[in-house]
Design a protein that fits this description.
This protein is mostly helical. It has one domain. It is about 60% helix and about 0% strand. It has 13 helices and no strands. Helix 4 packs antiparallel against helix 12 and helix 8 packs antiparallel against helix 10. The radius of gyration is 23 Å and the shape is globular.
């Protein structure tokens, strides 16, 4: 087995950066950044500038890397805010539909799902969320007053974005069709794909993961603006988010405008191709 590397001091970290070809003009600033941001975390932002031998391309500057990191951090916050609106919207719409068609606890009946639905796994997920939130006031209330029974409009407040996606994907096909058409004027295949893309995006943002120069696992379905160079980049995930965003006016006036301002602010440091944005992204994201 190969032994793990020993820890480096901040001075050693800076020396390592320099050895690989990174220009560090302001030592004090670099020390301050590395004292607040894990070296390993920051090193991921050097990936676009890394050569095959592990060294960095000529001109790679520490301050530029830090500015890309800041762009990524601000972008995560903006996208997480947009995802929050989508998630709350989906909870409301899915819950209202299911409650009025199948009743207060119809979500517990396996007959109300697609035949491939793993109901035991689904119930296990729900029970785990109840247990993990057992000290939350509304959970305690239903455990005591209603003997652990939760109406669907309560239990979905514990659903993660991933569970909402899972819930939709396992509904009866006629229910999937109705919701996809009524809410987004699309078909279940497309909606399921966009939900999967936004689940991945939400999880990355919520755990402070890197968006810049990232390859995403899911490819959005039926979005004609995508090609092989953009479908697995951030651009594809944002297009999925746009499709699901409930208020198109707010998207254009708020989310899009703030995204545009963010790109303008950091344009001298970032490259749009690193996040899959085409040259005409302004038109396509409105």
């Amino acid at each position: 087995m190969i032994e793990l590397k020993p820890p480096f001091t901040i001075k050693q970290q800076i020396e390592k950066l320099r050895e690989k070809g990174c220009t560090v003009k302001d030592i004090s600033f670099c020390e301050q950044v590395l004292s607040q941001i894990n070296y390993y975390r920051l090193s991921a932002y050097f990936l676009p500038f890394k050569q095959k031998d592990g060294n960095y391309f000529f001109g790679t500057d520490f301050n530029n890397i830090y500015q890309i990191y800041e762009f990524d951090r601000n972008l995560r916050n903006l996208l997480l805010e947009a995802i929050e609106e989508v998630e709350i919207f989906l909870r409301a719409k899915f819950t209202y539909f299911h409650a009025h068609k199948y009743g207060v606890v119809g979500y517990l009946d396996r007959a109300n799902y697609y035949f491939k639905h793993d109901h035991d796994k689904f119930i296990e997920k729900i029970n785990n969320e109840i247990y993990n939130n057992k000290k939350v006031l509304f959970v305690k209330h239903h455990m005591i007053k209603y003997n652990g029974k939760f109406p669907i409009w309560v239990i979905t407040e514990l659903f993660t974005f991933g569970m909402l996606s899972y819930f939709y994907n396992d509904l009866l096909l006629q229910d999937q069709k109705l919701l996809a058409r009524k809410l987004f004027n699309t078909i279940p295949k497309n909606l399921a794909s966009w939900l999967r893309c936004c689940t991945d995006l939400r999880n990355i943002c919520a755990h402070y993961g890197r968006l810049y120069f990232r390859i995403f696992s899911a490819v959005p379905a039926n979005i004609i603006e995508l090609d092989k160079n953009t479908m697995r980049r951030l651009y594809g995930a944002i297009l999925s988010l746009k499709e699901l965003f409930p208020d198109k006016g707010k998207w254009n006036d708020n989310i899009y405008q703030r995204l545009n301002n963010l790109i303008i602010k950091y344009k001298q440091f970032i490259k749009l191709e690193h996040i899959g944005f085409p040259v005409d992204w302004e038109i396509k994201l409105m």
